[in-house]
Amino acid sequence: MIEKFELHTDVLVLGSGPAGFAAAYTAAKNGAKVILVEQGGDVGGISTSGLMSHWTGSCGSPLYYEILRRSKEKNDFEVENITLIDPEKLKTLYLEMLDEVGVKILLYTFAVDAICEGDKVLGATVVNKSGMTDIYAKITIDATGDGDIAARSGAEFMLGRESDNKMQPATLMFKVAGVDYSKAAFIPSFETTYQTEKGELQALAKQHIPYPAGHILTYATTLPGVVTCNMTNVTDIDGTHAEDLTEATVTCRKQMDDIVKYLREFVPGYENCFIISSASLIGVRETRHFKGKYTLTEQDILEAKVFDDYVVKDAHFNFDVHNITGAGLDKTGVQKNFKQDKGYTIPYRCLLPEVKENLLLCGRNISGTHMAHSNFRAMPICVGTGEAAGTASAIAVKHNCKLIDVDVKKIQDMLGV
After folding, report:
1. DSSP E strands: which ranges in 63-108?
2. Which of 48, 189, 253, 333 could make a disulfide contact with 329, Cβ separation 3.0–4.6 Å?
3. Alpha-carbon span 125 to 12, nearest angstrom
4. What is the pLDDT of residue 233?
């Protein structure tokens, strides 16, 4: 028989990726009692367990810049680009920061169901080796990426793109060592070409790496001779299904040796490279888009729209839509040639599910269209939405008010945005 327990807290945060970490840290820093639930053995989600190469995009989030500053202080080697990520250092930094503000962390713990009373979300049921626990919270923040608990509460959502519910492909990141940095080719985007004596590297990747992989994306790291590869690829995957996640992991791992062969044969500086590490978390780019009190659109981003109730400011990235049917960039995607160079804002209403009470969204599962999501899913912007969610929840707890009644000007003032 599974033992059943009960916990109570002010704020319950589900998922500890950049958004969930930011939400938990900010809520606790502002005086709330916080429990953070994470299914894996480390805090950080894609930024750590997912072996993400760097912080891409930008956001006017004070917490984001604090993470960058404190990460730089932890580096073993002098690094010019402060957005590069050392996943092992970042894991420790996240834990240190959460400890500083008194967040209770439950690792190796899955959130399995929402606790509801009508349209009010009262918390979530979680399960781990200790048994099953009902965690009751005044405010629940879903930062699971897929919005698992928001979905189980009955919040309305759409899968993938509007026309056919297809979702962006998934990737398993890995690192190679033995790279000669003095002549190494670094390819930062799908639109980057690199001509060699043997041919152009993106074209050669399509020829020599098995479908649906077939591109080259390589990034410098904080460690000498080590490069992060964003080159595995699997399509037609629904990241809300365990079977699909398993298939994605197996498929991507099968591609890794062929990718290394390609790197050794065709890419300057990689002649003696070898795999030293790979992600323990598959990189799922897109699943559920929830219906919020406002849905951010592609046009909002292109116009750099400033909302009266903004809680994220100076968000900037491109339309990073990976090819839904194969390798490379989708025909709707625009990376280095993205023309909108102004930062946009995200309104508080995007964090509020249309009907549910006591529930906030943050990270890539906030309310937005398929195209808008391809922009705001960037990790710095996820930190921004998490920071906003944590601030709003702390205010709601302190003043014993509904989330919809939180004074947005107060959120803006506390965030300094």
Report:
1. 104-106
2. 333
3. 11
4. 98
**The dihedral sign for the CA sequence 242, 247, 249, 250:** positive
Calpha distance 106→331 (Å, rounded): 41
Q: What is the mean pLDDT of the chain?
A: 97
CA dihedral of 229, 232, 238, 242, whole degrees rounded to 10: -90
* Domain presence at residue 169: no
State residue 341's pLDDT score. Answer: 87
* 19 three-class SS: helix
Q: What pLDDT band is residue 336 in, cutting at 50, 70 and 90?
A: confident
Per-residue model confidence (pLDDT) at position 67: 98
Alpha-carbon distance 170 to 139, whole Å? Answer: 31
pLDDT at 102 over 90: yes
Rounded CA gap, 63 and 96, in Å?
A: 14
Asked whether residue 24 falls in the same domain as residue 141, the answer is: yes
Q: Is 299 or 3 the better-scoring residue by pLDDT? A: 299
Q: Which residue has tokens 């795999």?
A: 275
Residue 294's alpha-carbon distances to 121, 161, 346, 388, in angstroms, are 20, 17, 10, 16
Total domains in the chain come to: 2
Which tokens go with 337?
């040639």
DSSP, collapsed to helix, strand or coil, labels residue 148 as: helix
Q: For residue 248, which of 256, 240, 239, 257 has the smallest C-alpha distance?
A: 239
Instruction: Indicate whether 407 and 329 sit together in one domain.
Output: yes
* CA-angle at 237, arms to 250 and 351, nearest 5°: 125
Beta bridge partner(s), residue 344 = 315
Residue-range definition of the domain harbouring residue 39: 4-162+287-415
Distance CA 340, CA 337 (A): 9
The tokens describing 231, both together, are 């080159």
Report yes or no: 391 and 411 within 8 Å, Cβ to Cβ.
Answer: yes
- CATH number assigned to the domain comprising residue 320: 3.50.50.60
Note whether residue 156 is domain-resident. yes
Question: Do both 307 and 407 map to the same domain?
Answer: yes
What is the predicted pLDDT for the residue at 314? Answer: 97
